[in-house]
Write a structure and sequence with these properties.
This protein is mainly α and 349 residues long. It has one domain (3-140, 227-344). Helices cover 50% and strands 5% of the residues. It is built from 14 helices and five strands. It has helices spanning 3-16, 21-33, 68-78, 91-95, 102-113, 120-133, 162-180, 183-186, 219-237, 253-264, 270-282, 291-295, 305-313, 322-344; strands at residues 43-44, 50-51, 156-158, 204-208, 214-218. The strands form two sheets. The chain has a three-stranded antiparallel beta sheet with strand order 3-4-5. The protein has a two-stranded antiparallel ribbon with strand order 1-2. The longest helix is centred in the C-terminal third of the chain and has 23 residues, at 322-344. It is globular, with a radius of gyration of 20 Å. The protein starts with a helix and ends in a 5-residue tail after the last helix.
Length: 349
C-alpha cells in the first residue's frame, strides 16, 4: 500500500472509530512512517547521549535488500508478515504472507496489550501498517526466494481508464528497468517482480507464478477487507480510553463502507487518491470533521533524526518526542515478532 492508504485512510478510519484527531494523526503518521524510517545511524545529541534508530524499511534499489539479516529484520516483520498456513508443506510456504492471517491478528492483540504505554499509539500505527500490508502483499515472501518469481510478460491489468492504463504501464516499465531487471531479478525479495501493482487500490489484475499457477487479484475487495479490520482494531484501541477516545464520535462501519469503497475504487494517480481522502475527511462524509482534521497532512521529515536532535535541543523529553516513541515502538514490535511470535510457531529458532 501507499501513502493514500497508510496515512490518509488510516487517519480517516481511526477518526471514524472514535479516536480523537491528535491521537489519530500519531497513529496514521506511525503507519506511514514504517515505509519511511530508513535511517540506521546512531543519533548523537548535544550532551553526547545516543539514540539508536529502528530501521523499518529500505528503498527498492537499496543494496541492503540483498543482505539476509536485513530481510529478516525489515521485510519479514514489517512488510511481509508470514502467514504460516496450515496447509503449507515447506518452510518457504509457511513464510508466505497471507491476508488477515493468525500472526497478523496476534500483532494487533499485542498492540492492544500495550495501548496504555507512552508509545501505545505509535505501536498501534505500526501494527496497522503491517496488518494492512497482509491484504496487499499476500502471496509473496519477505526473503530472497525463488517463490517470488513471476513469469515474464504474464501480468495483465484490467482498468476502465485508458489514461490510467498508460500511466501504470509506464510506471511498471520504469520500475522494471530500475529494479526488476536488476536487483529484484537476482534477489527476488517480496513483490518486486510485479512492481507496485499490489499497492494500487483500484487495480484488478493477474499474474502467472513461475510454478505455472495463475493468480487473480482484485485490490478493491482486498483493500475493503483491510479497512473493515482496521476500523474494528481502532475501535478496540480506544475502548475504555478517555485520553484518546471520543465515544460520541464513533461511526459504524456500515455507515461509511459505501463512501470508502467509492474512494478505494477510483482509478487515479497517488496525488489524486490522496485528494479524495482529504475531501472525504474535510466534508463530514466519514465523521464530523474539526479544523484539525481539515488541515491534517503527512510530513516524511517530521520524525527523522534531524527533528529529534532539534527536539532535545529545545528541552524536549523522550515522552513528548514522536520520533523517539516510534523508535521504541518499532523496537518492541520487531522484538515481539522475531523473538516471541515466530519462534512460538517454529519459524525462527
Amino acid at each position: 500500500m501507499q501513502l493514500d492508504m497508510h496515512f490518509y485512510a488510516v487517519y480517516a478510519l481511526a477518526r471514524a472509530a472514535g479516536i480523537k484527531a491528535e491521537a489519530a494523526e500519531i497513529i496514521a503518521h506511525a503507519s506511514q512512517f514504517v515505509d519511511d524510517a530508513l535511517e540506521d545511524e546512531v543519533i548523537v545529541l548535544e550532551d553526547e547521549r545516543g539514540i539508536i534508530p529502528t530501521m523499518t524499511s529500505h528503498r527498492p534499489i537499496d543494496y541492503q535488500n540483498t543482505i539476509p539479516g536485513d530481510q529478516w529484520k525489515v521485510w519479514v516483520p514489517f512488510h511481509f508478515l508470514p502467514g504460516n498456513n496450515d496447509g503449507a508443506n515447506t518452510f518457504v510456504e509457511k513464510m508466505v504472507c497471507r491476508k488477515d492471517n493468525p500472526a497478523a491478528r496476534r500483532i494487533l492483540d499485542y498492540a492492544l496489550s500495550l495501548k496504555s504505554e507512552a508509545f501505545g499509539l505509535h505501536l498501534g500505527g505500526i501494527s496497522a501498517h503491517v496488518y494492512a500490508d497482509t491484504f496487499s502483499h499476500y502471496g509473496f515472501v519477505g526473503l530472497s526466494r525463488q517463490w517470488n518469481r513471476v513469469e515474464s510478460n504474464s501480468i495483465k491489468v484490467n482498468v476502465e481508464s485508458s489514461s490510467i492504463f498508460n500511466y501504470i504501464k509506464t510506471k511498471f516499465e520504469t520500475f522494471k528497468t530500475r529494479v526488476v531487471g536488476g536487483l529484484a531479478e537476482t534477489i527476488p525479495v517480496g513483490h518486486g517482480a510485479v512492481a507496485t501493482y499490489p499497492d494500487r487500490p483500484y487495480l484488478n489484475w493477474e499474474y502467472t507464478h513461475e510454478s505455472g499457477e495463475t493468480v487473480k487479484r482484485n485490490n478493491v475487495e482486498d483493500y475493503m477487507e483491510a479497512c473493515v479490520g482496521l476500523h474494528r482494531f481502532f475501535g478496540e484501541l480506544v475502548e475504555n480510553n478517555s485520553s484518546h477516545g471520543d465515544p460520541d464520535g464513533a461511526v459504524s462501519w456500515d455507515t461509511i463502507s459505501d463512501r470508502i469503497r467509492n474512494i478505494v475504487k477510483q482509478e487515479a494517480p497517488l496525488d489524486e487518491r490522496i485528494k479524495l481522502w482529504q475531501d472525504a475527511i474535510s466534508s463530514d462524509e466519514l465523521f464530523e470533521a474539526t479544523d484539525f482534521d481539515k488541515a491534517v497532512s503527512y510530513s516524511e521529515k517530521a520524525w527523522r533524526s534531524a527533528r529529534i536532535v532539534y527536539h532535545f535541543s529545545r528541552g524536549g523529553t523522550v515522552d513528548d518526542c514522536n520520533g523517539c516513541l516510534f523508535i521504541r515502538a518499532a523496537w518492541r514490535y520487531r522484538h515481539y515478532v522475531l523473538q516471541e511470535l515466530l519462534p512460538s510457531v517454529g519459524m525462527i529458532i
